[in-house]
Amino acid sequence: QVLLAESGGGLVQAGGSLRLSCAASGRTSSSYDMGWFRQAPGKDREFVGAVSWNGRNTYYADAVKGRFTISRDNAKNTVFLQMNILKPEDTAVYYCAASSSRLYGSIWFAQNHRYDYWGQGTQVTVSS
Question: Residue 105: which H helix or E strand, with range?
Answer without folding.
Answer: helix 105-109
